[in-house]
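agent> Task received from the user: take the single chain below, predict its 3D structure, and emit structure tokens. No templates, no multimer pairing.
agent> Plan: (1) validate residues, (2) run structure prediction, (3) serialize to tokens, (4) report one or two observations.
agent> Step 1 OK, no nonstandard residues flagged.
tool_call: predict_structure(input=
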Amino acid sequence: MKVLFIGGTGIISSACSELAVSRGIDLYHLNRGTSAELRPVSGVKTIKADIRNSDETLTALGDHQFDVVVNWITFTTEQLQHDIDIFSSRTKQYVFISTAALYETPPSRLPITEETPLSNPYWEYARKKIAVEESLREAYLETGFPYTIVRPSHTYDKTLIPLQGGITTLMRIKQGLPVISHGDGASVWTLTHHKDFAKGLVGLLGKAEAINEAYHITSDEWLSWDNIFRHMGSAMGIEPNLVHIPSDIIARYDQVFAEGLLGDKSHSMIFDNSKIKTLVPDFSAEIPFEQGAKEIVAWYEADSARQKIDPYLNGLFDKMIQYHASKG
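)
tool_result: status=success, residues=328
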């Protein structure tokens, strides 16, 4: 099977690339060749081009035909139309990487299934993904464009700290400083290791049954945010000093926080993975976040250059915590 990944070097796509190659897939990456050093994957053929430049892309592709094209970096309907124009005659399956953030927010019921309504009034990113999905369905009805939608949730590797504030928050834990766990810390969240996600995604490639269908691929492990903090602290041998502040108050301090919290992380999200497991029976999420947290901490502690605190965020956290304490 001949497969093209547009992108291919990111947190999720690199793990999918490694698994695809290990399973004998003839894998190509189409990208600008500027970010392969962080997550190198051997056995991949690279086509260098900027996917946003149609002439450059068509020249680079030449006569290539693919069984599957997976685009990891399409975010708008305009970009999708660009892909359709280029690949409608070049592939038997086009896989659009969407997001689980587009499901009804807040959810009216759990667990989330692929039939859960798509509606996120808080986050423009999610609304744009919804629009792309709608355009794909229209393209299928009009021309038979062979799409498959995949919706990752919060998927991580050793380089991604799944805490608001990233390395700044991790360093605050390490230094014994207070850190903010939104709400009462009890909302439930799903974190998926990128190697687990890869088993689901690669299992969908070339499956005719997946055409005109959508699948989310997530872990079956559900953790409260307080427990996520505690796993990160435990990986450093430290009990985090947690401060609970309501999400809507946190959101007032920073627009990015507002979108990420109100449009995503402040709401409990657990997923029913029955659909992907039915089509890809070998899919199972086997890596618990307790192990993932150790991988993350080990990677950051291996190089002091990775441990740079953001002065703006650090000061913002102090400001929020001090204000909250004064009102308590």
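agent> Step 4: summary for the user.
The first strand starts at residue 2 and ends at 6.
agent> Done.
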